[in-house]
Amino acid sequence: MPSNSVYQEATIPTQWERSWQNFRANSLAMFGLWCVLALLLITINARWLAPYSAIEQVGELLMPPSWDNSGHVSFFFGTDDLGRDILSRLLIGSQLTFGYALLVAFASSILGLLIGILAGMSSGLKSSFLNHILDTVLSIPSLLLAIIVVAYMGPGETHVLLAIWLALIPRFIRAVYTAVHIEVAKDYIIAARLDGANNFYLLYNSILPNILTTITTEMTRAISIAIMDIAALGFLGLGAQAPQPEWGAMLGDSIDLIYLAPWTVTLPGLAIMFSVLVINLVGDGMRQALNAGID
Fold it and tell me: Could you tell me the pTM of the whole model?
């Protein structure tokens, strides 16, 4: 017959279970999570969800949205100045803005995480030299750094993704490096080293669980930055080129129509704002849940 202490230990929730319970209790975070999942599904299935082609003229020029008296139900969000369906362009454009932002953020996080961990667990010249390089690179705003890279390589989707990837990597390296460096200096890590624990054991069992909040915060921040930078470069004409339906490019192409056809400007702008908002809601919820789970 198991004792009461054993039974109580078996029912104690783990750190992950406590974090998930805290996350579920946050209504704003759950709203953001469902919206992010919906955006992800839309991004994956955009080609099948779009009712029309994103680059071909399918209706009258500057047709208002369907809720306007002059609108038509066949074009729910209306058409642009070339007669292209805005709903179709927004759906397919999610792949070029939201989808690419996810890809470039994850790609930069992998490399930044590896370099940051290696640098944080090392010391001496390597760590100091990397620290000075990061200080220099991070003094340049990510968008400005991306503009410099695109201006050198030329406009285009591939060059934009490469530029943003290069701009995000130093942020991950600095955040992970700082978190790991602080963690390594703590007494329990020193005691574990004296007890014979190797670096891999310390990293997997002690350091990574304690820097998850930093990784989560930087990941969601990187996705938000990537969305805004992709849209900003598209708005400036340095990103996806016409007739590609990237949200920032749609906003830039329609800025002159803000008084004549305001829906052509507001709808892409709302798509950018909404995607950044829900990503930040999820990031804040995860940070609070992980901190509460650790406590």
Answer: 0.88
The answer to the question of residue 84 being in a domain is yes
Q: pLDDT tens digits, residue range 13-35?
A: 777 788 888 899 999 999 999 99
Contact criterion met (CB below 8 Å) for 105 and 222 = yes
Range of the domain at 111: 16-294
- The torsion region of residue 240 among left (phi > 0), alpha (psi -120 to 50) and beta comes to beta
* Residue given tokens 């944080």 in the structure block: 120
Does any domain span residue 11?
Answer: no
Report the greatest alpha carbon distance in the chain.
79
Handedness of CA 285, 287, 288, 293 (dihedral sign): positive
List of residues 6+ apart from 278 with CB closer than 8 A? 31, 32, 35, 36, 39
- Other CB atoms within a 10 A radius of the CB of residue 3 amount to 8
Q: Domain total for the chain?
A: 1
Q: CA dist 255 to 55, 61, 68, 266, Å?
A: 19, 16, 21, 9
For residue 6, tell me if it sits in a domain: no
Structure tokens at 164: 């943003």
Q: What is the CATH number of the domain that holds 139?
A: 1.10.3720.10
